[in-house]
Write a structure and sequence with these properties.
Length: about 450
């Protein structure tokens, strides 16, 4: 892999060559924006339950903001890569980094959360636990290979994002959304299978996993097309693609800073404590006049929301520029697959403040009563739904009772399975259904199936 061959305008699922590069990468962004999977993010919780009177972020607004940050990162880094000698000598490559890297990164940022099921991490945990609870049922587990079983007991939204973007269902084209290989590579934070992942103590690229066994063909095609580097010590695992670091940084910056702004609007964190933390961060900026920043913030004392919005924007700008500089300073290691960690983690002198933000986020935001309640409710809802649907589809057709048939009738056409499919393939169809649900749809379906409320006609 080098800077000249790590990108491609060719589309997954399309055998013909790419058209003009500019239109290919911009079309990725547009295809995601107009997709039903992206629209469904508006009814998926980001952190807080959606209140009636105060606007906070959902998955859709979060993804749009991540895309904005990602575009800036792509623009800054792309401009620097054009100065590399091997890039300067190739006009097509030069044009890509100058004009189009920002489009790849922003499109990947839009898509990075598409694989999250209803209720986010609670939904992932509910799916995994359903199968973990059956680990001692030999008759059940014997239906799956070791690799397939790992997919199910470690259900992973990152792997599911790749599946959402590339899956061929009964009513769409080969290749799913038919995005460029460059965009698809950029969302693969963990380029390995479930059985190759090492958990939290492993290296960054192996902490989770990036594809299901059902999608191995897709994964292999991507890694081959954009020349990703195989991690020879870990089977079919690969080191991260360079662009993935920019997508990850955009996401890290967004949730680190914007979750504070939401917590402020809900009265969980005070204006004074957020102001103090953001100003401590901005003291590190070499591109801003800190005294002027303080002066402007003081002028907004009478409008606390506007004050925090101003400081939020300044903090995001500082972290964006700083993350881009970390990438540029480590470009040689990144292109060789030798960089470990994330860009945000390597911003000089910022780690103490970022760790403070993380500690406050965990203790006072992510464990706030409203957040805990929706996580517990989401877990219960998703657990009940996955149990009903998996039981129905895995029951041999000759043994199904009327209730099983009725549940199967609720499966939309695009998620329907064939009776000749393997048990794993049938379960994956159900996981596609579960990940396609919004929080509100999952809640309503749960109420109906549990007899808590009757459906309206």
């Amino acid at each position: 892999m080098d800077w000249n061959n790590c990108f491609s305008g060719k589309r997954y699922g399309v055998e013909t060559g790419p058209s003009e590069i500019r239109s290919e990468f911009e079309r990725d962004y547009d295809r995601i924006i107009f997709s039903s999977a992206f629209r469904r993010l508006q009814n998926k919780t980001q952190v807080f339950p959606l209140p009636k009177h105060v606007f906070v972020h959902n998955r859709l607004t979060h993804s749009l903001e991540v895309a904005c940050i990602g575009r800036s990162l792509g623009k800054i880094v792309g401009a620097e890569i054009t100065k590399i000698k091997e890039v300067e000598q190739n006009k097509n490559v030069l044009d890509f980094y100058k004009d189009h890297l920002k489009n790849v990164i922003s499109a990947a940022c839009l898509a990075h959360d598409l694989g999250n099921p209803a209720f986010g991490h609670s939904g992932e945990e509910a799916i995994s636990k359903h199968f973990l609870d059956k680990k001692d049922d030999k008759k059940f587990t014997s239906q799956f290979s070791v690799e397939e079983w790992d997919d199910l007991i470690k259900f992973e939204g990152n792997a599911n994002s790749l599946r959402v973007l590339t899956r061929k269902s009964s009513n769409n084209l080969d290749g799913g959304y038919r995005l460029t290989y460059s965009t698809l590579a950029s969302i693969m934070k963990y380029p390995c299978a479930a059985n190759e992942s090492k958990g939290k103590k492993g290296p960054t690229h192996l902490k989770k996993y990036g594809y299901f066994q059902a999608d191995k063909k897709v994964f292999d095609a991507i890694t081959k097309e954009v020349k990703m580097i195989n991690d020879a010590d870990n089977g079919n695992a690969f080191f991260r693609h360079p662009f993935t670091y920019l997508v990850e940084a955009a996401d890290d910056i967004a949730y680190n800073i914007i979750d504070f702004e939401d917590a402020h609007r809900l009265g969980i964190l005070t204006t004074e404590e957020i102001t103090s933390i953001f100003l401590d961060l901005l003291k590190l900026s070499k591109n801003d006049n800190f005294s002027k920043t303080q002066e402007t913030a003081t002028k907004l004392d009478s409008n606390p929301n506007e004050k925090i919005s101003y400081l939020r924007a300044k903090a995001i700008n500082f972290l964006t520029i700083s993350s881009a500089q970390v990438f540029i300073d480590n470009a040689d290691k990144i292109i060789k697959g030798e960089f470990e960690g994330s860009l945000v983690q390597k911003i000089p002198d910022a780690q103490t403040i970022l760790e403070k933000i993380e500690t406050i986020s965990v203790n006072r935001i992510y464990n706030h009563n409203s957040v805990v309640k929706i996580e517990l409710a989401g877990f219960k809802i998703m657990s009940a739904l996955i149990s009903d649907f998996v039981e129905a589809v895995l029951m041999p057709k000759s043994e199904r009772i009327k209730r099983h048939d009725k549940i199967i009738r609720l499966i939309p056409n695009q998620y329907l399975f064939n009776e000749t499919n393997t048990s794993y393939e049938k379960v994956m169809c159900i996981l596609d259904l579960m990940s396609g649900m919004t929080d509100l749809y999952a809640l309503e379906l749960y109420r109906n199936l549990q007899g808590i409320s009757m459906p309206s006609i």
